[in-house]
Write a structure and sequence with these properties.
The chain is of the alpha/beta class and 738 residues long. Among the domains are: 2-180, Rossmann fold, CATH 3.40.50.300; 192-304, Orthogonal Bundle (Helix Hairpins); 562-608. The strands form two sheets. The chain has a seven-stranded mixed β-sheet, with helices on both faces. A two-stranded antiparallel ribbon has the order 7-9. Helix 21 packs across helix 22 (479-503) and helix 21 (464-474) packs antiparallel against helix 31 (680-692).
């Protein structure tokens, strides 16, 4: 990890420099950055790594333009994660003129820990005391003037979401940048008799060997040796390994002494003394009128006593998941049926006004039946997104991570893995692509890899239409329960696979889990509607672009080549014979007899097509799972995007029916109900196969990007396929015997 991260200068003018914005997660840092820059920002990744880089232009009231860089949110500058390494590198090597440190004021003590570390690096700081309104609501009164006096830092009260105080904080940062040129005297605090005794010797060794002293103060580098910071140690060894060995010998002696006398270790001592320094400042007139507040439990804490309780918390989470599905299906079923009927009517209307031929087939079977089958689930998806948005904006999602940490540790994962799982569809409706990207925050590379490889087992939004279709057909009276159980099955599969991986190919020690729980907030209706529409629009755009393109390709593969002329002539002859032999029959009876031949011809055309031949060739493999050639084609297309399973089945059933049947409004669900090959056994096998098999193309590409290795892409493709196949076969065979 450390060798891949290189220093990158800000693209801003080096003479003018830039201002960085730093802060803990949930401090309002990104809100402040967005307020400052608005649309004048661009987002990318730091070169060579996957950590997001945000940079933009802000303007002072006098019109002066200032380049701002939004550092990754971190709790500290110790190299536990890529975000922390990147933030530290930008501060030390790119050297911003000053840093606006956004503080979550209601939890001032915890947020000042990052401030202390930046001060020890000699970084010029302006403290933005954010969320002052929430602090007042909780009875916390901050004396900003006293904090300035004790720290020597400019401390500006702000409310980022309203923009209060932001201009003043930026003006102070620019002024500080001009006066300090990006460097101030590093903060020096005592770390107790055991560490203070060895630091001078270590500092001398660091200075003599010039170990990273161009970027960092020598005392800070020495402390990183005491903390056994892997990134700093690796870089220092490239410079002078002999000196590093001498330093580590000192560290070993200190470590042994602390272990025998205090049963602790240097990193813990350093953290204790930093918090001690912070506490001494806070108690010296900075925090007033807060004792009463701390004596009573805040509203969020009262809720957490129940919602994060060891026993009640997981049960409440299960209830929340079930209620989501129940409400989605009960409320969304009506608009879903109306929309599906609308697409059926549209196919019938368009088909009745077009001449028979390839163009009519393309539009009705390829486009309307294919894409319409996916878009028909928009109401259900929208309702689910709305409820997920409520959980996220209210602060409950962070509690889910806390609740699940103990369980995840047993299976070799990290508590922070819960967020990639949730984003990837752990609470159904997510997407595996941002879920895989969300694993970037994990400290341990092995826990990160295990999370990346198991996120695709979640019930992402692309799988939901497949589940809703077949659950609605075979479990009409228990749809919410079955959808809920499928979600749990995804979790179970992810955890079991993670456990197996962590015991075999991805062995490694677990890392501690630290996460700040934001206060509960009542989301605004407008905000929830905006977030819901953004996600729904992404789903619609995918159906109108990627799914449309794939549907057209699959339609072509299901349409061409046509049957040979001699075979078509046989069907024409059969129709002629039926007409000649049934002259006395009514037109309806005659049409019914002819339609039987039409159906046979349409089905044979589909079998003769490229896709049909491929699907039939796969039947020898998929027969134990109960999949026929139509299903094989759909599942093969699903590797591109899971929604394609629905669009392909819609196209296959539309092409496999006669022209007369096409003119009648039949939904895909109706056609599957009438197909005698579908039974509960192979329907359940299909549900499990869809849940478990290969991630879509975009997710596979993201796995390659995040891991940096092709082998994990192929592992995810073939291992997941094999696992899904075994589970599907066992499911089909067992249910057939029941």
């Amino acid at each position: 990890m450390t060798d891949e991260i290189t220093s990158q200068r800000s693209p801003s003018d080096p003479a003018k420099g830039f201002i960085a914005i730093a802060g803990n997660p949930n401090s309002g840092k990104t809100t402040a950055f967005n307020r400052y820059t608005g649309a004048r920002q661009h987002v990318g990744n730091y070169p060579g790594i996957t950590v997001e880089k945000k940079e933009g232009l802000a303007h002072l009231p006098n019109g002066t333009a200032v380049t701002l860089v939004d550092l990754p949110g971190t709790y500290s500058l110790t190299a536990y994660s890529l975000e922390e390494v990147v933030a530290r590198r930008v501060l030390a090597e790119d050297r911003p003129g000053a840093v606006i440190d956004v503080i979550n004021t209601p939890v001032l003590e915890r947020n000042l820990y990052l401030s202390v570390q930046m001060l020890e690096m000699g970084i010029p700081l302006v403290l933005s005391l954010n969320m002052m309104d929430e602090a007042r609501e909780r009875g916390v009164v901050i004396n900003a003037a006293r904090l300035e006096e004790l720290t020597g830092l400019k401390c500006i009260p702000t409310i980022a979401r309203r923009g209060d105080g932001l201009d003043e904080a930026l003006a102070e940062a620019v002024k500080l940048s001009e006066t300090t040129q990006g460097r101030v005297e590093p903060l020096v605090i005592s770390y107790g008799p055991d560490l203070d005794a060895v630091l001078p010797e270590m500092i001398q060794l660091v200075e003599k060997a010039n170990l990273l002293t161009e970027q960092y103060p020598a005392r800070w580098v020495a402390m990183k040796f005491l903390e056994k910071d892997k990134e700093i140690l690796a870089r220092a060894r490239h410079i002078n390994n002999e000196t590093c060995e001498k330093l580590m010998a000192i560290v070993s002696k200190v470590e042994a002494h602390l272990k025998s006398t205090l049963n602790t270790y240097p990193e813990a001592v350093i953290a204790d003394y930093r918090y001690g320094w912070i506490s001494s400042i806070i108690k010296d007139g900075v925090l007033t009128g807060a004792s009463e507040s701390f004596e009573r439990i805040a509203f969020s804490d009262k809720l957490d006593q129940v919602l994060t309780n060891r026993l009640a918390g997981p049960l409440i989470l299960l209830v929340v998941l079930y209620v989501m599905y129940f409400f989605t299906i009960q409320v969304g079923q009506y608009p879903n049926d109306w929309l599906s009927a609308g697409f059926d009517w549209l196919a019938n209307f368009v088909g009745s006004h077009m001449d028979h031929g390839p163009l009519k087939s393309l539009i009705t079977a390829g486009v309307i039946s294919g894409v319409g089958g996916v878009l028909g689930f928009v109401p259900l998806i929208m309702i689910m997104f709305f409820m997920i948005t409520f959980l996220e904006d209210s602060g409950y999602m962070a509690r889910v991570a806390y609740i699940m940490d103990r369980l995840f540790r047993f299976f070799g994962l990290h508590g922070a893995s819960i967020m990639p799982f949730i984003i990837g569809g752990g609470i159904a409706g997510g997407c595996a692509v941002p879920g895989v990207m969300g694993a970037r925050t994990l400290r341990s590379p092995k826990e990160r890899l295990a999370t990346i490889l198991t996120v695709p087992f979640m019930t992402c939004g692309a799988k939901i239409p497949v589940f809703l279709l077949f659950v609605g057909i075979f479990f009409e009276k228990n749809q919410a329960t079955v959808m809920f159980l499928l979600t749990l099955a995804g979790w179970a599969a992810a955890l079991l696979v993670a456990f197996a991986l962590r015991k075999t190919v991805i062995r490694g020690e677990p890392t501690p889990f630290v996460m700040e729980l934001p206060p509960y907030r009542l989301p605004t209706l407008a905000g929830m509607c905006i977030h819901t529409w953004e996600r729904t629009w992404q789903y619609i755009k995918k159906a109108g672009t990627i799914i449309l393109g794939i549907s057209i390709l699959i339609w072509a593969a299901m349409t061409f080549p046509d049957l040979p002329a001699e075979e078509l002539a046989v069907y024409d002859q059969q129709r002629a014979q039926i007409v000649a032999a049934n002259q006395g029959q009514s037109e309806e009876e005659l049409a019914s007899l002819v339609a039987q031949v039409d159906n046979e011809e349409s089905a044979e055309k589909l079998r003769h097509s490229i896709a049909g031949r491929l699907g039939i060739a796969m039947e020898s493999i998929t027969k134990p799972a109960g999949f026929d050639w139509r299903t094989n084609i759909a599942l093969l297309g699903g590797i591109a995007a899971k929604e394609v399973v629905i669009s392909t089945l819609g196209t296959a059933y539309s092409l496999g029916s006669s022209e007369d049947e096409e003119e009648e409004a039949h939904s895909l669900a109706d056609r599957i109900r009438k197909d005698s090959t579908w039974k509960l056994s192979n329907a359940m096998a299909l549900l499990f196969f869809t849940l478990l098999y290969s991630p879509c193309f975009v997710t596979l590409a993201m796995i390659k990007q995040e891991t940096g290795k092709w082998r994990w892409l192929f592992f995810s493709l073939f291992f997941n396929l094999a696992l899904a196949y075994v589970v599907a076969v066992l499911t089909n065979q067992l249910l057939q015997t029941v």
